[in-house]
Amino acid sequence: MTVIEGVAAPPPTVEVRPREVSRRERWQRRLPLLPALVYTVLVTQIPFLVTLWYSFQSYFWNTPSPAHFNGLSNYKTVFTNAAFRGSLVRSVVMTVTAVIVAMILGVAFAMLLDRKFIGRGVVRTLIITPFLVMPAAAALVWAGPMLDPNFGLLNYLLQPFGVHHVAWLSTHALGSVIVVMIWQWMPFMTLIILAGLQSQPPDTLEAAKVDGAGAFATFRELTLPHLRPYIELGILLGSIYLVNVFDAVRLMTNGGPGTATTNLPFYLFQQVNNAFDIGGAAATGVVTVVLTIIVATFALRMFARVFQFEEGGV
Amino acid sequence: MSAVTLRAVEPRPQKLREMSAQVGWGILAWVLGIAFFLPVLWMVLTAFKPESAAQTWPPKFVFSPTLAEFRLVFSGWGPYVTHSLIATIGSTILVLLLGVPASYALSVHPVGRWRDGLFFFISTKMLPIVAAIGPLYVIALKAHLLDSIWLLIILYTAMNLPLAIWMIRSFMLEVPRELLEAARLDGAGRIREITEVIMPVVSPGLVSTALICVIFAWNELFLALNLTVTNAATMPMFLISSVPQEGLYLAHLSAAATVASVPVILVGWIAQRSLVRGLAMGAIK
Amino acid sequence: MAQVKYVAASRVYAKDAPPAVSALDLDIKDGEFMVLVGPSGSGKTTALRMLAGLEPLDGGRVEIGDRDVTFVHPKDRDIAMVFQNYALYPNKTVAENMGFALKMQGVAREERDRRVREAARLLDLDDKLLDRKPKALSGGQRQRVAMGRAIVREPQVFLMDEPLSNLDAKLRVQTRSQIAELQRRLGITTVYVTHDQVEAMTMGHRVAVLAGGQLQQCDTPRQLYDNPVNQFVAGFIGSPAMNLQKVPLTEGGARLAGTTLPLPLAVRTAAKQAGLTELVIGIRPEHMHLANGAGELPGEVLLVEELGADALLHVRLAEVDSPVVARTEGRKSPAPGQQVTFRVQPDDVFAFHPVTGARLAG
């Protein structure tokens, strides 16, 4: 018997009314958002607008003359100022180095913590502690009891390796600050990667075992691709916080020696606190914001996956 | 049925190899964990030293402990810790008050342009606060908010709100759709929906979020440094003030650092699971 | 040769707990399609994983070919496995999924591609799909990719862990026959785990029924159906299930529904030898013949399930607590509430020991 595939009458045309969320419903949905939205706009955008305003003014805190308009002169200073460019470069170096090393260490630690062993919970507690320590405290403790040339613990521990009373904050200032940044942010990376590792479906790992993949091949072919969105998230969030690091710079080296460890936040701090140059600081601030927006746009395009927002809604 | 004969007593060579590998990784994890924790350990240890014992070569691991430095710290910390508590708790409460409804509006019954809304909040985090510190100072001065605890509360709230909204939103997305639909069929209005359906499911997530806000607010230095002097000076400021310009006071600064850090460390340890879950899960979605 | 042997293989999880797999002895011939079937917790999946090398053995050994593979790493056992949830690599394309094992073996790219394409053709997987990732595929397609991944390896043994359980009913029936035919064509020894006895009966050359970690019976489907070795197998194989009822022994037979059901001499002798006063009898639904008034077993129809060609009657027999099921022709089925009688041939009655469940005089 021949089989006649579903012959049916063509479906009647149905007129579809455009779906309309009622006006009332729309405002009902917006209402809960408004307090936070208005608050954030007021507290973040007003200062920014004021910054923009002042960037076109010459305004020195320590002179009696009031602020007066001076056009783009502040901006010109910013772009020709070697100190600004230097601090920019240093910010990039510090952030990129710290983020990458912290992420690599984070992956390594997460892989270690993913296995079962005695006291796993305790080790995890130990590892997240640097993230909890007050950054100001961490900076002071590293600068003093840890790295002191004469009494510091690090010099003592490295003695067997031929290290003698190194003045870390003088000879390796940038490195020292970066080490503290890494120390504080590696736990954050570890936790994110650990969540990623634990969300890997175990039967794909078994399938890989049966398919003949050793530990290294499994990591390279399966685990790393699975971890990619987590790594990207860690790098993005870590960068946002690390680029603004201030405490370690101020309290360990005060930007020095010279300007060896001066990053953007510290440079701005100096402009306001030492130079009392509100106008100049404002212009620097605006340039910083613009640069941040450019970098962020690139970063977001690269890390598009991070922003595949899950849509809610009933 | 005959009883099952289990493996003989001597472990087979292969199993021994596997077991020793596992123990090996465990030991490595412990060594690295302790190495990482060492600076904190050293900080607490040094805090109990008299200054003379803190400045020795080689550094002392055995000494007669004293509470002298701690006494000094506690004699001076009063106003600072009060300000920190008020700023931290105040801003965290405000963050939750503003953040929960906002997250609700971006997840369960999303507004039309929720993507833009979410992006706006995140973008405020990306712009460095340092850029506006000069003008912020001027604004605060003109508004008579300089050196005021209210200023800190306001700014810390703005600082933590984006992260809180991101996290709370992801927790709200976890509420099963069927639960919301069942509540709707049962006649629950918006308020009832929030209090009886969403809050119970989301409250562990709120705890995680609050913890992270507390950590960032308590530890914040930059704004406190620039915008306060005495009336609103917080613990980070206290820490700086305990390090005189001249002279090395390793034991004293260790004691101050310990006292300043311990509250958050303890809170983080106790609520570790919640914190880990919040960071990992809240951030991932 | 790729015969598979389990020799007294055991797996125990906790020291004092009953074994998950208890001294399993199973001989699987080269090229045979062996189905391991049983309810959940019966140990069938554990037994499969022991063969795969994903679970260690706590007793006994496993052999593939003539090799003792008990301590051999999964990748060196020359096996391929299809997982219940497919376990496809999410970040790889279909082609990369299927070629992964070959890549691990160091097979050259052209050879890999050739074998992948061949397997895809065999499974009716369109070439277009080869470049897609698993999440872009339907459930049925993913299942075929999982099978393709196994086929490409040309192993000595196929292991399949409930590969059809995640498919919808219609697709399941379709794929069932495709798998059976594929196995016939390739001739590779296959060990197949399922909880569905219909799958077991239709696909396997032989079926091993497991319960509580122990092998109940290993036989051809026909033998399992006609000659179950104990009550469990009798009640597990066949759908709808055999009617089982504990009844007292009487002169010449057993008392059921107010009458004496005659039992064969061999059964009566075996029961007397075992000193039994009662036993469990089993009658398959199709052996309950409707006899209009002339049957020995009276009862009332509770429910009629129309299947089209047949009908299933749920009947409450006199003096019997739980309803029994009888199969009749669809067109002539009685209505609910009607009084009916049944006739049963003595040879169609199974008898089991009331305590051990063993078949009496099978």
Descriptors:
heterotrimer; A: 314 residues; mainly alpha; MetI-like fold; two-stranded antiparallel ribbon; 14 helices; 67% helix; 1% strand; disordered C terminus; C: 362 residues; alpha+beta; six-stranded mixed β-sheet; five-stranded antiparallel β-sheet
Describe this structure in a few short sentences.
Chain A is an all-alpha fold and 314 residues long. Helix content of chain A is 67%, strand content 1%. Chain C is built from nine helices and 20 strands.
Describe it for me?
The complex is a heterotrimer of chains A (314), B (285) and C (362). Chain A is mainly α. Chain A has helices at 23-30, 33-55, 73-80, 82-114, 120-132, 135-146, 153-157, 168-171, 173-198, 202-210, 215-242, 247-253, 264-273, 278-302, and strands spanning 57-58, 68-69. Chain A has one domain: MetI-like fold. In chain A, helix 4 packs antiparallel against helix 11 and helix 5 packs across helix 9. Chain B is mainly alpha-helical. Chain B has a single domain, classed as Orthogonal Bundle (MetI-like fold). The N and C termini of chain B lie far apart (53 Å). Chain C has 362 residues and is of the alpha+beta class. Chain C has helices at residues 44-52, 94-105, 109-122, 139-151, 169-186, 197-203, 221-226, 231-236, 265-273; strands at residues 4-11, 21-28, 33-37, 59-64, 67-68, 79-82, 157-161, 189-194, 206-211, 214-219, 243-250, 253-256, 259-262, 278-283, 289-290, 297-306, 310-317, 324-329, 339-343, 350-352. Chain C starts with a strand and ends in a 10-residue tail after the last strand. Chains in contact: A-B, A-C, B-C. The A-C interface holds A 201, 203-204, 206-213, 217, 221-222, 225-226, 228 and C 52-54, 74-75, 79-81, 83-85, 87-92, 100-101, 104-105, 149, 153.
